[in-house]
Design a protein that fits this description.
about 280 residues, alpha/beta, Nucleotidyltransferase, domain 5, five-stranded mixed beta sheet, 12 strands, globular, binds adenosine-5'-triphosphate, binds magnesium ion, FtsA/MreB, ATP-binding, Hsp_70_fam, Ethanolamine utilization protein EutJ
Length: about 280
């Protein structure tokens, strides 16, 4: 029985290779699509009816800021283009999609996110909270799931499969880039490139560490309300640094687990909700 990390690695391989899961290996039933409209990345995830990854596509985002659509036509065009590309790969139409929002955003902003999906000719299945989507992939029913993306840190606390709290604060990977740019007097693009260079990861982490501490403080503010909560799962691109988990664990005094492919957990989780809301 493959675990979440195996499934995430499979999805990562499909996405990077531009490959698809062959039809004969898929469960019968309609394909499910998850559309993650992130601040840094747009990701489309396709699974079969049993939740097995079938295909995926990602591109840089420009029209979304912390769950707010700031370039509506540009984002719709991007999602349409990505949908068409996946349909061409799969040789079939993609009909139904779920999407997600950072927890606690304004209902009007959530509506705009849903409108993007419909304007890209998807039937909108539902809109879920990002960390809740991630929790579904990871099989977490008890614990906290933290999504540290480009723009925000989102936290959902689950007990017995029920969401007890969902919180989102504006601190993410973009803030790390800003701190790096400020410290080294770099242009933002140069700072972002440096941040993503594995050869410089140690030096970079030393400089962005205060942002990680801030993220951990945000998470502590939520999880400390739940003294019996012992495990925190971290996902999202900004947790990619090797030392990230240790810094979080020290600050939170709890076990911190980082899955394989942290950038892909939330997008894949969103697709798992596309079968709902019928
Ligand atoms: N290897 C890496 N090391 C450090 N940071 C990384 C790495 N890979 C990606 N990131 C950062 O992760 C962020 C993107 O993560 P993700 O795709 O989860 O965000 P998003 O979903 O677009 O944003 P949000 O959820 O906040 O709207 C960017 O700030 C990016 O620079
Ligand atoms: Mg995200």
């Amino acid at each position: 029985m493959p675990g979440p990390d195996d499934i995430l690695r499979d999805f990562g391989a499909l996405l990077r290779e531009g490959a698809i899961l062959p039809r004969e290996e898929r469960a019968a039933g309609p394909l499910r699509v998850g559309v993650d409209l992130g601040t840094a990345n747009l990701v489309l995830a396709v699974t079969d009816a049993a939740g097995r990854p079938v295909a995926g596509l990602t591109e840089r985002s420009g029209g979304i800021r912390d769950g707010i659509v700031v370039d509506y036509p540009g984002t719709v065009r991007a999602v349409r283009r990505m949908k068409a590309e996946l349909e061409a790969r799969l040789g079939e139409k993609l009909l139904r999609a779920a999407t997600a929002i950072p927890p606690g955003i304004h209902p009007g902003a959530a509506k705009a996110i849903g409108n993007v999906i419909e304007a890209a000719d998807f039937e909108l299945a539902c809109i879920v909270d990002e960390p809740v989507a991630a929790a579904r992939v990871l099989g977490v029913t008890d614990g906290a799931v933290v999504d540290v993306g480009g723009g925000t840190t989102g936290i959902s606390v689950l007990r017995g499969g029920t969401v007890l709290a969902s919180v989102d604060e504006a601190t993410g990977g973009t803030h790390m880039t800003l701190v790096l740019a400020g410290a080294l007097r770099l242009e933002l693009a140069a700072a972002e490139a440096m941040k993503l260079d594995p050869a410089q990861a140690r030096d970079v982490f030393a400089l962005v560490r205060p942002v990680v501490d801030k993220m951990a403080a945000i998470v502590a503010g939520v999880v400390d309300r739940y003294p019996t909560l012992d495990t925190v799962h971290v996902v999202g691109g900004a947790c990619s640094f090797e030392e990230f988990g240790a810094v979080f664990a020290a600050r939170l005094g709890r076990r911190v687990i980082k899955p394989a492919e942290p950038l892909l957990v939330t997008p894949l989780g969103i697709a798992l909700f596309a079968g709902e809301g019928r």
